[in-house]
Amino acid sequence: MQSFIQVSADSHFPIQNLPYGVFKPTPQATPRVGVAIGDQVCDLSVLVDNGLFNGPLLNHTTVFHSDSLNAFMELGRDAWTEARTTLQRLLSSDNAEIRDNQTLRNIVFFPQSNVTMLLPARIGDYTDFYASKEHATNVGIMFRGKENALMPNWTHLPVGYHGRSSSIVVSGTNLHRPHGQTKGDDDPAPSFGPCKLLDFELEMGAFIGTGNNLGSPVPIGKAKEHIFGLVLLNDWSARDIQKWEYVPLGPFLAKNFGSTISPWIVTLDALEPFAVLPPTQDPTPLGYLQESGKTTYDIELTVAIKSPKMEKPAIVSTSNLKYMYWSLTQQLAHHTISGCNLRAGDMLGTGTISGPTPDSYGSMLELCWKGTKTVSLGSEERRFLLDGDTVIMSGVCRGNGYNVGFGESVGTILPAVNLN
Q1: What are phi and psi of 253, to 5 degrees?
Q2: Contact, 43 vs 34, CB < 8 A?
Q3: How, if at all, do strands 390-398 and 266-267 pair?
Q4: Per-residue pLDDT averaged across 240-265, rounded?
Q5: Pairing with 46, which of 98, 168, 175, 327 sits 20 to 30 Å away (CA)?
Q6: What Å distances lie between residue 349 and 62, 161, 208, CA to CA?
Q7: Largest alpha-carbon pair distance within the chain?
């Protein structure tokens, strides 16, 4: 399958992908929904205005004239499938409907380099999990030793906490180093000031498409039907603040100052050709978490850091979603088993995705092993992030002659705000 839009061999956005996002073609324009194709954005509000969608979307022509994807996601899988099928047909190289209509092409396509990307959804709630066994083990060894690396509950349920949705930002948004309380092991009392041990966390975020009613859990076999798609997620962390504050209730200020996501939501339909078997789970989960088959995805993930003095970024981590112990569907089923109701636009974070080797660790905490090592950036070294550092995350699935990618999640750390 090929598009009449030119797509380079290394592009993340061929016709096999078609991820959804929200954009403004000019700074003064109203937001609208689009899909990425090659280096272009296809404006879906124009397509719907020209009567090019059928099926469930016929009676919902306003969903693409919106500053979020929430209304479209609420329509459910039939509408998602119809939209994807229609877009692949319209953008196909052998379909003349748009290809040979220059007037329509002039108002449908915009270079990605010229548009402003916005958050793709109104994120009502955000839950962050701790689903990578390698990451949980590494952190456990650092703070509790090998004998007690994993807490007793970890292999029985997907551990998670409720995060802060208001500070989730789209790629390209810079964040200030946070303030908070910290206390060294030998300090007699805590002190207040800017975080000294600032970290990234390599994660992915799953967007809920259709929710569930309060009191009605989502069975594991139907969990996939509720997930619209995935984004890259950098869950920035202030490690020194976290160490002092997290007992007994868990993360708070160390996490709520900002989380960065990529602007394009890649649908599960686009990811399905890259589904793979997950890691073996031992012990076997309880019944409501049991699933079989290919329940995760082969998504290559990279993290690079660039300082103001560096000419190009240095890759510091290469990981993969397939390493994750608890699947996205298990996370969703566990989240709702209490009767908790998820809603369109809610986001579930995977937690840091680390692999089995040091070069696949998904955080500076692991890469520098709690500050005992340095991480090479070529001309510079790091233990944790410095002001001015830009973190660039990327994700891609490698197909036969094409890629299905996520683009990038990019953020730069600015100095702490002067409180005086």
Answers
A1: -65, -25
A2: yes
A3: unpaired
A4: 96
A5: 168
A6: 29, 10, 11
A7: 74
Q: Which amino acid is at 343?
A: R
Q: Given its phi and psi angles, is residue 382 left (phi above 0), alpha (psi -120 to 50 degrees) or beta?
A: beta
How many Å apart are CA 152 and CA 392, to the nearest integer?
35
Question: Is residue 190 a contact partner of residue 281, using CB atoms and an 8 Å limit?
Answer: no
The amino acid present at 361, given as its one-letter code, is: Y
CA distances from 369 to 137, 143, 208, 302, 325 (A): 12, 11, 34, 19, 21
Q: Which two tokens stand for residue 266?
A: 């890649």
**DSSP-assigned letters across all residues of 51-72:** T---GGGGG-TTTTSSSSSHHH
Cα(133)–Cα(114) distance, rounded to whole angstroms?
41
Please give the distance of CA 169 from its chain centroid, rounded to a whole number: 11
DSSP strand pairing (126-129 vs 347-349): parallel
Given 135, 226, 334, 335, which residue is catalytic? 135
Question: pLDDT per residue over 114-144, tens digit each?
Answer: 999 999 999 999 999 999 999 999 999 999 9
State the number of CA atoms in the 13 A half-sphere of 87 facing the CB: 28
Q: Which has the closest alpha carbon to 262: 59, 17, 61? A: 17
CA distance 155 to 132: 11
| pTM over cut 0.85 | yes
CA pair distance 393, 261, nearest whole angstrom:
9
Find where tokens 């002001």 sit.
387
Residue by residue, DSSP assigns 215-258 as T-PPPGGGGGGGEEEEEEEE--EEHHHHHHH-TTT--SHHHHT-
The amino acid present at 9, given as its one-letter code, is A
Q: Are 344 and 70 in contact (CB under 8 A)?
A: yes
245's tokens: 């504050």
Q: How many whole angstroms separate alpha carbon 203 and alpha carbon 403?
A: 20
Does 135 qualify as catalytic in the annotation?
yes
Residue 239, pLDDT score:
98
Cα–Cα distance, 81 to 116 (Å, whole number): 27
Residue 396 three-state SS: strand
